[in-house]
Amino acid sequence: MDKCIQSSPIDTRRALYNNIVLSGGSTMFKDFHRRVQRDIKEIVDACVAASDAQLGGDTKSQAIEVNVVSHPIQRFAVWLGGVYHYRFWPNEAPSLEK
């Protein structure tokens, strides 16, 4: 996840770190969202500390907030997204005919 966020434009990274949304059945393991949040936060804090050290310690970077969103229906989020897309944009749905 961190590599994906780091590859995005720099002005959107804080918002992306603040809104990581889990989806799919494999994300339903107990405390998975807490583990992901802890791991991403450690990576981000290490990057911020390295950046501060590279600048010589004259300036202090703002902390980056990491928030991982978990929801009881995340197991079905992908399916619900497909249903929503087909319901409101049926002409854009992929065709199974060749």
From TrEMBL:
Task: Identify the species of origin.
Answer: Amborella trichopoda
Protein name (database record): Actin-related protein 3
Q: Which Pfam families match?
A: Actin
What are the top taxonomic ranks of the organism? Eukaryota, Viridiplantae, Streptophyta, Embryophyta, Tracheophyta
Task: Please state the span of the N-terminal signal peptide per the UniProt entry.
Answer: none
